[in-house]
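Notebook, p. 212. Picked up where the previous page left off. The plan for this session was modest: take the two constructs that came back from the sequencing core last week, fold each one, and keep the raw output in the notebook itself so nobody has to go hunting through shared drives later. Recording the first one now, exactly as returned: residue sequence, then the structure token string.
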Amino acid sequence: MTVSFESTVSIAASPERVFQAMTDLEGARHWMKGLVRIEPLQAGPLRQGARWRETRKMMGHEATEEFEVTALEAPGRISLFCDGTKGTSGKGEYRFDYEITPDGSGSKIRMRGSITMPGFFAKLFGRLFVGMFRSLCTKDLLSMKAHLEGSRGA
């Protein structure tokens, strides 16, 4: 079963600044709530094919997932894939596509996500699960917005 979700946030920062913040794995600690650590799985700048492990504290527990960049087009698009079998969730596929466009004097980020889960559990809890993911993804975007708008002079 595949479920999809979407979220849009406007940020008073240029698409270039938003793209830079979203692709700076080291800098994510400044705005990503619950982040414990990010471990790049190869050296060098973020690029298509790059992978990392991301550990967050969620609901009182640490959860680690492995992400891969499937598209990277500065400053307008970032796509990520997460194979749940390589992380704490143990199953499923997660896809996140971020489109960054100019919006007045700032930017708009449109995030589209999809989750593919096997089995009866997905059919039973799929809609609840997708609501939780939409909320978490939106909170990340709002945290980045607060960080960028709060440090405009930096």
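Okay, moving on. Second construct, recorded in the same format:
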Amino acid sequence: MSSTEHLAYIVESADEATTARTAQRLAQCAGLQYASITLHGDLGAGKTTWVRYLLRALGVAGRIKSPTYAVLESYEAPAAPHWPQGLAVSHFDFYRFTDPREWIDAGFRELFAAPGLKLVEWPEKAQGTLPTPDLSLHLQALPDDHRRMTFQSHTKAGAALLQRLKEAPLAAP
């Protein structure tokens, strides 16, 4: 893996609007339709909230549920310039896994091999079984209701996505 695959991008957020705009910027990036993104952070850090912002930015309408109990929620984003046929999105939450082999037993290997965006909360619960993510997002609550979002690339595709995200400045509210 080259050093270009280990890019990082940090966003300090003083409000939910900045968090939403960060997700909106990522939604505009070419290559997202093939990405796998893991989300890390303590309970209540905002992982599911960030996924909701991203899905809304991708045009997903209706209720966006946390997959904590179902483990997987699937969505179809409408057609867009980067994915003219629509975009399949799989949102996983492995919080309730007690053994990484549960990921294999659930048949998720086939889902990860299929086209579409994969968003994974609590990936450490399936450690050693998940493919290498393109990006990881670490969410950290800071004092005064601030949040730090640290994006890290792990593949060439992730580095390209992160570079596009970094080049697209956050718009003002």
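Notes on construct two before I forget. Residues 16-27 form the longest helix (12 residues).
Flagging for discussion at group meeting.
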